[in-house]
């Protein structure tokens, strides 16, 4: 299991409220995965700069930050919900198939550009509700930690 690289590429640094718990769960998840986390600069929409242009610029940065050879998984409310066990199974399957790993993409305030969504092998929904991208990062980090405990049969996951 340790040979699978799990990357998280996100737009913007977490705010000070959620930064400590995100860092804690990323630290815990790194016990189970070769975890790589990278943030890219957020863009701002304005009257002179439409949202589509902002999303395109962020998508270019996200693409550039994603490690080569990894499957791309976009976090989007338009995606399919996975259970914790399904996430664990997905990561285990990557290891069994000898894949390089997975890159989870967390968009900014405007989401993820459609062009980048099309490039992703999976679209993962953490909730049918819209949530701030910092909260999505926290949920993802906790679920990556949980997936590791599931695969090792550790008592954290109550199922």
- Number of domain units: 1
CATH superfamily: SPOUT methyltransferase, trefoil knot domain
User: Number of helix segments?
Assistant: 5
Number of strands: 5
Strands side by side in the biggest sheet: 2-1-4-3-5
Radius of gyration, taken over Cα atoms and rounded to an integer in Å: 15 Å
Name given to the CATH architecture? 3-Layer(aba) Sandwich
**CATH-assigned fold name:** Alpha/beta knot
CATH class: Alpha Beta
Could you list some keywords that capture this structure?
alpha/beta, 5 helices, globular, about 160 residues
Description:
This protein has one domain (5-152): Alpha/beta knot (3-Layer(aba) Sandwich), CATH 3.40.1280. The chain contains 5 helices and 5 strands; from the N terminus they run βαβαβαβαβα. The chain has helices spanning 19-29, 51-65, 84-96, 114-119, 133-152, and strands at 5-11, 34-40, 71-81, 101-106, 122-125. A 5-stranded parallel β-sheet has the order 2-1-4-3-5. The two termini are 20 Å apart.
């Amino acid at each position: 299991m340790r040979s699978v690289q799990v990357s998280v590429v996100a737009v913007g640094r977490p705010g000070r409220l959620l930064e400590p718990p995100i860092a804690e769960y990323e630290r815990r998840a790194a016990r189970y995965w070769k975890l790589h986390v990278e943030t890219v600069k957020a863009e701002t929409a304005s009257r002179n700069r439409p949202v589509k242009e902002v999303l395109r610029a962020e998508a270019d940065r996200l693409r550039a930050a994603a490690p080569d050879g990894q499957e791309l998984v976009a976090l989007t409310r338009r995606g399919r919900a996975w259970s914790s066990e399904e996430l664990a199974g997905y990561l285990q399957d990557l290891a069994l198939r000898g894949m390089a790993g997975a890159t989870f993409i967390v968009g900014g305030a405007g989401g993820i550009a459609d062009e980048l969504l099309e490039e992703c092998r999976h679209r993962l929904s953490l909730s049918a509700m819209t949530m701030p991208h910092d909260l999505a990062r926290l949920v993802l980090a906790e679920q990556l930690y949980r997936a590791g405990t599931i695969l090792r049969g550790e008592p954290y996951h109550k199922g």
